[in-house]
Design a protein that fits this description.
This protein is mostly helical and 82 residues long. The protein is 78% helix and 0% strand. Helix 1 runs parallel beside helix 3, helix 2 packs antiparallel against helix 3 and helix 3 runs antiparallel to helix 4.
């Protein structure tokens, strides 16, 4: 389900609305009981993801490199959460 939410964020970013899913992601992921260093790293990843969505919105189109980056974000977030 996380990957689907990240994909939706990518589509919103390509449409010029990069911050559309970030409040939802931050709220759900940070309230998931993650603490300490794992929480700090998750916050870092979310900040980085937000910047990534901003850069995608500047491109205005989705490219293969965006999908690869999204899969990388997903892997990193899953490793912190589980």
């Amino acid at each position: 389900m996380l990957y689907e939410i990240l994909k939706e964020g990518l589509f919103w970013a390509a449409l010029g609305r990069p911050s559309e899913v970030m409040p939802f992601l931050r709220g759900k992921l940070l309230s998931n009981g993650v603490s300490g260093g794992r929480r700090e790293y998750l916050e870092y990843l979310l900040d980085d993801l937000e910047g990534f969505y901003e850069r995608v919105s500047w491109d205005g189109e989705l490219q293969e490199r965006h999908w690869r980056a999204l899969r990388s974000f997903h892997r990193d977030m899953v490793s912190v959460l589980f």
